[in-house]
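SEQUENCE WITH STRUCTURE:
===
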Amino acid sequence: MDLFDLQNNEKTMAPLAERMRPRTLDEFLGQGKIVGQGSLLRRAIAADKLGSCIFYGPPGTGKTTLANIIAENTNAAFVKLNAVTSGVADAKKVIDEARDRLRMYGKRTYLLLDECHRWNKAQSDSVLQAIEQGYIIFIGSTTENPYVSMTRAIVSRCRIFSFSRLSEQDIKAGLLRALNDKERGLGNMNLQVSDEAISHLAWASAGDMRTALNALELAALTTHAGEDGIIRVGKEEAEQSIQQKALSMTEDMYYDMISAFIKSMRGSDSNAALYWAERLIEAGCDPMLIGRRIMIHACEDVGMADPNAIVVATSCVQAFEKIGLPEGRIPLAEGIIYVAEAPKSNKVVEALGGAENAVKTIKHETVPVYLRDPNYKDNDERVSGYKYPHDYGGWVKQQYLPDEIKDAVFYEPTENGFEKEIKERQKKRK
């Protein structure tokens, strides 16, 4: 077996998703805003004038593929590193070679750093000067928000291109291309894939071309041929190959979904709150995070409009802890619905903030004489004047705050729920 045979075997043995990677911009699917006809990035690639940039988006949306296309269409040197396995020494070697290449031959160097968010500050700083001096053109690829996960110095010197999940039509186009391609795809197989199967794979892959192609290949390789020699892949085989809709999430998506859940609860949309909670749990989120948010909302957004909300929320979370998954989701759902549908008031939070601010502002408050501790030996005289509320039917008008803020009002109830009753009581006391 010669070298050519080894290389050919390596190509044919590669997964379908790898074999079907687009080689040109014309083959590239999706991301029309980024690489569509007339776009800035497409023009820059065509002119071989691309500057440092970061490709950011979910898995399977074409980030690495686009980087490979750039590598094939540039006269510059193209070096690839993975942030997981490389460090400062690897970066320094690339930079030294790039500097020599530019000085001796006038040739630029692209550095593609996959999973670039994995580099720490020291590693990122090691390439910063080289970017500034033009020795390398940096291309980062990441599934995490670079504004959060990467150093500001690197981000500020790069143009950010945000990749979106592929549409179902894009996924279908990629699957059909793989089925018809005799060189790299499954075109040489005696294979028939139903429209239903294609549609299911496109839906269940959740915008991830790699997931869809891998599932198609698995279905084709594991389905037995009929008596006529034809391998028929229907919806059932497609469902078995991909199992279920992909529900993984990036760190970015995680925080977005948490935010959506929080705002749905606050907005009294129990349907949306239930959906986002279930979406998070199905993707692997700790259900106790959901539980903690329910209890927080019971205090923060419902508050005194329904004081029973925190009781219900706490009970539901405790029930979940005792029951566990999957049935434990039921009391969590009950807590979500109760808190979401309860009347809302954030006056407790506002009152706490007002009191906190007052504490920080008043440095030398004086406790009113009649409120002081009467247990000291010489305190009989100075505590005189205190009115015991129960002697007056439960309430009597007297000053409790320090003189410096004696008229301060921190808690102002709304007209919602139980707070309406509190407001009426306050009116009677004035």
Remarks:
- Residues 1-7 have pLDDT under 50 and may be disordered.
- Residues 82 and 114 are 5 Å apart (CA to CA).
- Strands lie at 53-56, 77-82, 109-114, 136-142, 159-162, 191-193, 231-233.
- The chain is about 50% helix and 10% strand.
